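re: that complex we talked abt at group meeting.

here r the seqs, copy pasted straight from the sheet so there may be weird spacing, ignore it
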Amino acid sequence: MKHPQNLGPPRWATRLLTGWGHPDTQEEVQGDLLELYTHWVETVGERKARWRYVLSVLKLLRPLAKQTKYQYPTPERPGEEPRTTFFSSPDMLRNYLKIAWRNLVLHKAFTAINVIGLAVGLATCLLIVLFVLHELSYDRYHANADRLYRMTIHGQVGGKEINTAEVSVPAGPALIQDYSGVEAFTRLRQDGTFIVKHDHESFKEEHVVFADSNVFNIFSIPLLKGRGAGTNPKTVLTEPNTVVITETIARKYFGEQDPIGQTLTLGTAGLFRVTGVCQDVPSNTHFHYDIFGSIRSIQLRNTWLSSSCFTYVLLRPGYSINNLQAKMPELVKKYIGSEIQELFGISLAEFTRKGDVFGFHFQPVTSIHLHSDLEGEIEPNSDIKYVYIFSIIAVFILLVACINFMNLSTAGSAGRAKEVGIRKVLGSVRQQLVGQFLSESILVTFIALLVALGIVVAVLPSFNQLAGKQFGISAFTSGWMLPGILLTCLLIGLLAGSYPAFFLSAFKPVSVLKGSVRAGFRSGWLRNTLVTTQFVVSIGMIIGTLVVYQQLHFIQNKKVGFDKDQVLVLHDTYALGPKANAFRAELTKLSQVQAVTQAGYLPAGASNSGNDGFQSENGSSPTTTYREKTYYIDENYLPTLGISLAQGRNFSKAFPSDSSAVLINEAAAKRFGWKNPVGQRLSTLGNGSPESRHVYTVIGVVKDFHFESMHQRIAPLVMVYGADNYQMALRIRTTDIPGLLKTLEQRWKAQTDNPFAYSFLNERFNTVYQSEQRVGQLFGIFAGLTVLISCLGLFGLAMFTAQQRTKEIGVRKVLGASVASVVALLSKDFLKLVVIAIVIASPLAWYAMNRWLQDFAYKIDLSWWVFALAGFLAIGIALVTVSFQSIKAALTNPVKSLRSE
Amino acid sequence: MKRAFLGEFEEVVLLTVAILDEGAYGVSITQEIEQKTGRAVGFSTVHTTLQRLEEKGFLSSRMGGATAERGGRRKRFFNVTAAGRKALQEVKQVRIDLWNALPPQTLQLMGG
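got the structure back, here u go
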């Protein structure tokens, strides 16, 4: 306490007291506290003194206290004018809220429409914001996210583009060896699914990866237990046959036991020792592995011209990725030239002259989730497009809700004009009136916010299911979410209240009170514009929904070239090992089963995938190498899946020479330029070594079938004779599917203790389009909500117009107008707006949906009837909404409406 | 019968004001109570109590002259009103009556 004078009591506290303390005792309280503060500094020290001072101030705040006695100026005490009520003084604020509340209660119907509309809008907006923020947060939590990149291959071989997320095994080590700007690299190697065993329990694990030992340094996934946890995660995966597992997996296999040092059997890869437990991989990561094995546990093909490892590169701070990118051609020349020579028999220069390309590229790890769509992605990624679409929808819905709010307030202003006049006459200044209207709209916004939060809590579980996320209520209270929400609401309240506030407060009291201003309805153009905007948005959304559903329907019912119904897929039949063949024979004998095939390669859902380079032995351009997809199938494959042959014959056991025979699809025949493919010969490149080269004879051509998603055109496919027993496909013929499944399970259990798992081909096919389906559903829901909110607004407006024109309608009826003509009179104005909205919305929606459809290789044409239907729907809905009010008004007995004057 | 009720803390404050006579204002009252009763009292509590007592009419107050200390802010001095004195008397009388009503053996037991 060297300078007790230097630090006075906290100034902010004093200011707080001046502003919000009890006005009557301001002076002496401040004085007393100052005196006490000096006393405290002397007795208990400065820090405690400040603390006590602040505490006393806080306890002495009387934010709502009013000055009770006005002290008239005396000779000793001049100055101090009587206080005037500024528009932001506590007194006035209290008054605003009171009047606002009374107004809201008085116009219950309008209030309800406002609150419901706004609440639904806010709730939707909140959910979308949650979704979008989560999408944008992917992989941003890694400590070095800004320096972390994933290496990719982009190239072109034989006219086919190669864009893979996985790169060559030696690429990582070469980078760190040759370029000083690279600080570290880590590789992830996927080796399919594993049946994981511990004691007698076994489960199928799909998220298994083998990783370099520094994986937990590169990605910020904390290690909870294990050697060197916290300090040096580098040591957990150094030895072969060691694994790190997530908390969830640890609990699943070991319960409460300490998993460190325990062992797990990973399929055929052997026995692994657990050396660490890490936290579950956060949901906003582009991978979600549960089991990390050391990369030394598995065999890696150390060649450059194959892609098998996800490789992540950490740059040194300050080193630009462009520098590294610029050096890649050099790297390709240095390491890959020789391999190209060996594999294709041509030099790198020749290779590039032919138009073929092979290059490494880098993508920031933070952009993988939203921007990357390469071959062999770890998980299907999302798309930035959907982030944009949903953000726009959120803004639209909020806009529509705000418009409602503004419309109803301005419409209601006519009734408030007299009130404003009287207030002005009694001495209100404009500021106070503005304050009053603004506080009214802010009050409504916050009531709506409360309702919206209630709605969100109620629908969160279903939303999670729909969006494929796991949000909790806590998502709203974390970080800037809550202040953000409050601030946004305040802004909405100010924005929505601003028009009526400034418009109404500008009334001249004389003219208003004389009744010469028919206030409110003069501002028709603004309201009309707003209503039109609402309907443009609504109609646009209706069209969007219709198109999305049409396209989905088209995809799901398009002839895919194989018969996807009544096909059952048994998973993981490789677990049967050598017993697989006998098991297949056993299943074939079942009466409900028509055919069984070993189907490691399937056109939908989990499947092996293979590529190989092919050269036509006697085609048009003998040296061109095509990299094509390959399937390994047996003779039962085509009949089981219902794929038909265009030419030639299927594989058959009767021809021993079929081991060097292939089937190709029509697209492949076209690619190789064969008019008569049967009998043509193809040679493969394999991995470059002579023993992996084969020459095959084409024995048949299958009709094109969709073996990839409909986003792509049907690619060439080569089918080689040779079974892959990863899965089995059964063509079944029964109505008693549960019974069949029971039988199958019994047979399965008799063979192995591995879990029995199955799926239906058509379901797998549909899940390929899950993201489109999700978009379709969300679009539908959002469109529905937008229409609902717009209609609420329209309903309010119609109600209002009807009220306004009660007398007019009364007079018209007395003079002989029919009910129909009155209804037409009232509805006509609104319908005009809807029609204008249709005209504006149709081209916009056409453009947007055309863009969306560009993503599909097979798509519907946008037909005019979609627009017509959307238009009719909009008109119909608007008519129903408005006519409820107009019919009510038209049916009113004119005696009632006219008798008041 | 309606009589202004005097809470325990109110009584202490009222008495202290009476003790301090002319020099009773916020700070001196707070410090006096802390000294005499040995309990930690918050200034805000005392202040609020003083306000309440004034509202009830047991205290009257006037502003003192400006002083150089405490940033030139004036003190509000408190005086016990006639009603306040009466209330204190009543409280005291009630206590005395109650003590007198105590049976002698109990009094002995309590060490009195």
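couple things i noticed - Residues 1-5 of chain A have pLDDT under 50 and may be disordered. Residues 147-371 of chain A form one domain.
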